Amino acid sequence: EEIEVRLAARRPLTAEEQASLASGIAMNLGHAFLITISYCDEIARSPSGKFREFVCEIEPSSAEVSESFTL
After folding, report:
1. Per-residue pLDDT reduced to its tens digit, 12-63
2. Stated pTM of the model
3. Of the chain's two ends, which shows fewer C-beta atoms within 10 Å, N or C?
4. Is the separation of the CB atoms in 38 and 8 below 8 Å?
């Protein structure tokens, strides 16, 4: 029920920007997930050199579906 959004941004988002981002994600997913925003220096690429848009870190035994999407 929780989604962590990891951002590599030039500046931290304002409270208003964070709220807008979280609201937009929840609206597009169609569920009121608890959305946490954290910052990192960079977004790591996959071994093939692509950015992974979505990463599920739930152990496969505890989730019906475990997938990772790439851009």
Report:
1. 999 999 999 999 998 998 988 899 999 999 988 889 999 888 888 777 765 4
2. 0.66
3. N
4. no
In whole angstroms, give the CA distance from residue 22 to residue 17: 9
- DSSP 8-state assignment for residue 17: H
Q: Which residue has the tokens 């990192």?
A: 40
Amino acid identity for residue 41 in this structure: D
35 closest CA partner among 47, 54, 52, 18:
18
Q: What is the DSSP string of 20-39?
A: HHHHHHHHHHTS--EEEEEE
Structure tokens at 29: 């997913």
